[in-house]
Amino acid sequence: MNSKTTRTLGAVVAAAALTVSLTACNSSKDDSSGDAASSTAAAPSSAAGSGGTGTGASESAPVVPSTSIAAADDGQQVTITDAPIIAEYAQYGYEKGHLGAPLGPVAELPDGKGKFLTLKGGTIYWSEASGAHVVHGVIGDKWGAQGHESGKLGYPTSDEKSEDGAIKQTFQNGTITFKDGVATVS
């Protein structure tokens, strides 16, 4: 391979890895993330040389890369290859949002039905049955005390929502409500 081809290939790979920018942040989840929606993510894993043109993608849905790289607290790079988890993380502003940086890679859950990504400010849980949802804070602590996904509540089916002066999050088999400093399970 001559030096011009090597430089061109290197430039293409570097450009693909550094310039994919996501702008599909849902401001209703974290208005404080501001411009975090334009956080740079690494290119999709197929961008490194499949030669495809990328045509045929739906224009009605935001493009979510199949791979994202974010710096963990210890400075190490974490590669996230689970599109539903990446999409949920994007809605919270990636590492610049209130969830912060990943503390490790996406891992399988013991029941074999789901995965999770632990972040500085919470955890994203995913299962085929319920999708990807953030669990954190007092509600996350209460869910943990109930046995997490293997407990009576099962997987989360929504993110937290403010309703009637309370914060609520639904799970496969119930709801946790936080109001007046107390978390209750129903």
What can you tell me about this protein's structure?
- Residues 1-26 form the signal peptide.
- Keywords: Signal.
- It comes from Tsukamurella paurometabola (strain ATCC 8368 / DSM 20162 / CCUG 35730 / CIP 100753 / JCM 10117 / KCTC 9821 / NBRC 16120 / NCIMB 702349 / NCTC 13040).
- The protein has 186 residues and is α+β, with helices and mostly antiparallel strands.
- The protein has a domain at 68-185.
- Helix content is 19%, strand content 25%.
- The chain has three helices and ten strands.
- The strands form three sheets. It has a four-stranded antiparallel β-sheet.
- The radius of gyration is 19 Å and the shape is globular.
Descriptive terms for the model:
single chain, 186 residues, alpha+beta, four-stranded antiparallel beta sheet, 3 helices, 10 strands, 19% helix, globular, LGFP repeat protein, signal
Short description:
Helices cover 19% and strands 25% of the residues. By secondary structure, the protein is of the alpha+beta class.
Walk me through the topology.
Layout: H1 3-19, E1 68-71, E2 77-80, H2 83-91, E3 107-108, E4 114-119, E5 122-127, E6 131-135, H3 137-145, E7 161-163, E8 166-171, E9 174-179, E10 182-185
Antiparallel strand pairs: 1-2, 3-4, 4-5, 5-6, 7-8, 8-9, 9-10
